[in-house]
Amino acid sequence: MTERLNRIEAILERTAQMAKANMGTIEADRYAIAQLRSTVNSLLQLCNFEAIVTKLREIRLEIRWLRTENQLILEHLFRRQENC
């Protein structure tokens, strides 16, 4: 019976050591996951920033086109008035 208790005690000690080692690993993993989340969020913000810049460029081009159209319309209207 004593021998059996000694084996159980040894198994429990190893299990406790493994659990303690696993806790360290778990903490390290939590830290790595937090860093990974931070990196992913930064990348997503960068992607969103790039998408916003692209959209702003499209809007700027559209504004230029509208200005050109407006200028042509105004020139056309004022030429008509001068010819009348």
How would you characterize this protein structure?
The chain is built from 1 helix and no strands. It is mainly α and 84 residues long. The chain is rod-shaped and about 120 Å long.
Observed structural traits:
single chain; mainly alpha; 84 residues
Radius of gyration: 36 Å
Main β-sheet, in a few words? none
Tally of individual helices = 1
Q: What is the helix content?
A: over 70%
Beta-strand percentage range? under 5%
Straight-line N-to-C gap: 121 Å
Mean pLDDT: 89
Order of helices and strands: H
Q: Could you name the ranges where pLDDT drops below 50 across 5 or more consecutive residues?
A: none
Give the strand tally. Answer: 0
Question: What structural class results from the helix and strand content?
Answer: mainly alpha
Which geometry do the CA atoms define? rod-shaped
Q: Briefly, what is this?
A:
By secondary structure, this protein is mostly helical. The protein contains one helix and no strands.
Please give the structural blueprint.
Elements: H1 2-83
